[in-house]
Specification:
- This protein has 77 residues and is an all-alpha fold.
- The chain is built from four helices and no strands.
- Helix 2 (23-48) packs across helix 3 (54-66) and helix 3 packs across helix 4 (68-75).
- It is elongated, with a radius of gyration of 19 Å.
- The mean pLDDT is 92.
């Protein structure tokens, strides 16, 4: 097997199924995964900053997600 835990045969099946999946469904899955990543990021920021206000948490999450430079440009310093 390659470095991962998926056999080449199983990977070929996964790729075939993905190719047969309608574009709208692939986009929906991608959007759902993106929402999950954003939620986990916000939860991680809140866990690391238990005393922060909601406004502080939004800004800290923006820094984590966008990077401090872009977050400053979007939300101000």
């Amino acid at each position: 097997m390659p470095d991962g835990d998926t056999s080449p045969e199983a990977e070929a099946i996964q790729i075939d199924l993905l190719r047969k999946t309608p574009m709208w469904k692939r986009l929906r899955v991608a959007a759902e995964m993106s929402e999950t990543v954003m939620l986990l990021s916000r939860l991680g920021v809140a866990r690391r900053n238990p005393g922060a206000s909601p406004a502080e948490l939004r800004r800290l999450a923006a820094d984590a997600i966008l990077g401090s430079e872009l977050a400053s440009r979007v939300y101000g310093r």
